[in-house]
Amino acid sequence: MIDKTSLEASMIHRADWPIEVRLLGVLDAAALANFYERNTEHLKSWEPFREPGYHSVESWRRRIGVGDLLKFAAWEPGNNQLLGVCSLTNIIRGPFQACTMGYAVDRSFEGRGVMGRLCRNVLDYAFDTLKLNRVMANYMPCNNRSAALLESLGFVIEGRAVKYLKINGCWEDHILTAKLNPKPIDI
Q1: What is the tens place of the pLDDT at every residue in 92-116?
Q2: Cβ of 26: how many Cβ atoms within 10 Å?
């Protein structure tokens, strides 16, 4: 189990670009709800069907910081609008030391480098702070942007899963990728 109370105020920041990246906490529930509300149509092709209220402020308050979910976001300094989100989920310790990474970008910032910057910072956190051995990320074969992003981040294709996830009401195949920690870890 991850102690999120000590991580909630953590911040990952790089001075070489004007985007702030930080770990989200319960106080960010409204910004998360707003992000998903603004991007419902944009993300519909890549997301599972969600029950009404799944992305409400109250729902995010209940879920953020519970279980094995670490959710990060990119922000413009001085602006309370999320540009993109990146999650580390299914964090497994013991001999596996791995997790799954998922991400989404605001439609207004697609193709502007936000996801690469955000995901690089989150990977640094996964490998340097959490000391994970492997981060896995999967994408639908038709999602060329995700394929290019993961390749640029150093993810390697490990296979293809048929009817892997039910996305927008249809079972979709996914390309399975992973990135290994470049530094040896002790467990």
Answers
A1: 999 999 999 999 999 999 988 999 9
A2: 14
Report the alpha-carbon distance of residue 58 to residue 103 in Å, rounded.
21
Contact 128/108 with Cβ under 8 angstroms?
A: no
- How many CA atoms lie less than 13 Å away from 21 in the CB half-sphere? 25
Q: Identify the H or E element spanning 119.
A: helix 114-124
The pTM assigned to this predicted structure is 0.88
Q: Which of 51, 73, 71 is nearest to 61 (CA)?
A: 71
Q: What is the rounded distance in angstroms from the CA atom of residue 54 to the CA atom of residue 91?
A: 22
- Rounded to whole angstroms, how far apart are CA atoms 164 and 85? 22
Residue with tokens 């910004």: 31
**Would you call 68 helix, strand, or coil by DSSP?**
coil
Q: Give 131: exposed, middle or buried? Use CB within 10 Å, 0-12, 13-18, 19+.
A: middle
Residue 184: what pLDDT? 82
The tokens for 96 are 């596996």
pLDDT tens track for 55-102: 999 999 988 877 778 999 999 887 878 999 999 999 999 999 999 999
